[in-house]
Amino acid sequence: MIYPVVVYGHPVLRKVTKDIDNSYEGLGDLIDGMFQTMYRAEGIGLAAPQIGKSIRLFVIDASPLADDYPELKDFKKIFINARITQREGDEDVHPEGCLSLPAIQEDVKRPTKIRIEYYDENFTKKEEEYEGFAARVIQHEYDHLDGKLFIDHLNPLKKRLLKGKLTSISKGKVSVSYRIKTPV
Ligand code: NI
Fold it and tell me: What are the catalytic residues?
């Protein structure tokens, strides 16, 4: 199932999400649907709040960018109840976009190395380290679980300059090739 992508201004994007357990109904279908929705929108990551579910789940398939970033080779994963336990390394600046913020791209500064604990789709506990662009994609999706968006990392002036664009997005006045859900 392809879901509409919730865009800026919808309160679900600002909620702190809840952990789930392996009795969560329809989890397999939900994960499939999230991948389909992400591929349809040509994204490399999607967090559950972006389809209106306030749960601690995100999916990533950044493998299409592996030509430019070797660390992304085969990087297709499902992260359930994730907790970033360590962030280190130099901060690195790189442009980011988000399916919930269509047509906006801004430089975001993030640590280059993280350690993360999570459960995979079989509820097997994992603990892993990521660096480079993989660490960036994870941190972006992880922010969604805490009700944060990449624009929250921008300085106040830059954020102010985006205000008009953000208002347009929240009203659905944005050209986008996938189905979106605006705040009511
Ligand atoms: Ni995003």
Answer: 141
Query: How far does residue 32's CA lie from ligand 1's centre (Å)?
Result: 18
| Interval 99-120: pLDDT, tens | 999 999 999 999 999 999 999 9
Query: Using one digit for the tens of pLDDT, what is the confidence trace for 35-90?
Result: 999 999 999 999 999 999 999 999 999 999 999 999 899 999 999 999 999 999 88
Pairing between strand 5-6 and 125-131?
unpaired
pTM over 0.70: yes
Q: How many angstroms is it from 100 CA to the middle of ligand 1?
A: 6
What residue ranges define each of the domains in the chain, with the CATH number in brackets?
A: 5-179 (3.90.45.10)
- Tell me which residue has tokens 């988000």: 98
- Residue 123 CA to ligand 1 center (angstroms) comes to 24
In angstroms, the first-to-last Cα distance of the chain is 22
Q: Which two three-digit tokens encode residue 151?
A: 């624009």
As a whole number, the mean pLDDT across the chain is 96
110 bridge partner residues: 92
Distance 19 CA to ligand 1 centre (A): 19
Closest Cα to residue 98, out of 71, 67, 58?
Answer: 58
